[in-house]
Hints:
There is one protein chain. The protein is an alpha+beta fold. It has 2 domains: 5-258, no CATH class; 269-420, no CATH class. Helix content is 29%, strand content 9%. It has 10 helices and 8 strands. It has helices spanning 5-19, 48-58, 72-78, 158-161, 258-286, 290-307, 325-330, 363-366, 370-385, 398-411, and strands at 87-89, 106-110, 114-118, 124-131, 135-142, 152-153, 175-177, 189-191. The strands form 2 sheets. Strands 1-2-3-4-5-6 form a 6-stranded antiparallel β-sheet, with helices on one face. Strands 7-8 form a two-stranded antiparallel ribbon. 45% of the residues are buried.
Amino acid sequence: MRLRFPAAVALLVAVLVSAGITAQRRDVFVAPRDHAAIRYSATPPTDEVAVLNRKLADGSVALKFDATSGYLRSVLEALKVPIESQALVFSKTSFQAPLIRIDNPRAVYFSDTIAVGWVRGGEVLEISAMDPRQGVIFYTVDQTATARPQFTRNDTCLACHLAWDTAGVPGLIVHSVHPLPDEISYVNGYTTTHGSLMQERWGGWWVTGNHGGVRHMGNIPVMPAEKGKAKLANPRQPLKSVEGLFDLKGYPTPYSDVVAMMVLAHQTHMTNLITRVGWEARLADADPSEDAVLRTREAAVDLVDYMLFVHEAPLAGAIEGSSGFAATFMNQGPRDAKGRSLRELDLRRRLFRYPCSYMIYTEAFDALPAAARDAVYARLWDVLSGREKHQRYNRLTAADRQAIVEILRETKKDLPVYFQKT
């Protein structure tokens, strides 16, 4: 079966743009990605993959090839992407879909700014990188042994990765899909963020670890032909690992860690929102109309709301990972004098102990145009200081707000001076 809903989304975007209907959307970027103020396709990237490419070309870095996993392990090491982040997806939501099955899932690995997709038997390794200025750039590298492999930019990925669900910019998506009644039906699914209910997550994914006792959609086949393959006696029970369920040759670890998947669901949309507010500001700088300036402010509000987990779905029970990802993630810091960090996980009531995204430390956030960064910080301060009274912020307690401000004061460079107010 061919996956058709991402292409349909991309086609819908193109049709609406040509019809001028997108001007009505206030929650996504609506200008072309190659607008003179953006130049997504023509601007040379400066992300971590682009840097690694130069090192591979001059011979200062080399990649090792494995007969089964190709360059996977070497690429993860070179880009500092932890193996513990492995998440296994068996829905056919990739251009390498014909190879993906419940017993041959696509493995996804990620850091704050890099995502790597590996399909056993695939011709390429898939990589996305968060460019400090241009948002997410997509690459592939051939899974063929060569002296100096090179990553090739692959904008065909935008057929799926440029849509309403990515805020109208080249971005990242975590999909959950329902089981299909037959092989020719359209995929029926939706995007997962930290606002998604646990009951609506992980359709088409393996899930290992304790998910808090909530019924979720993972660990069951989504393709009719796969029923009976890698079948679990009770797919709703916590699954320690996928060992014994299918051949693990080539996979670095037997886990598809629930905590890693929850962090990934937050991070993907946060990445898109950072790109969107930057692009809106660049348009406003090129054409400072009242509407363009307003769109930047609106994008900043959307970003801050997401950054502060205003619409996060509460956890019904304690979550516990299986791969060690939680410890690896939290150990990265930075921490304030009291040892507190925005990377500190809660996993009982909510995802993070201090509800403010660690993505505020990314180079892409720091590289936002001044107008965008100023708008985001101003809105962030309005909420954290209590000046913004909207009821949706009531879930942020006084203790939450105080802790976030104190942590940012000690750990975030270039914080506006008004954050120092007591």
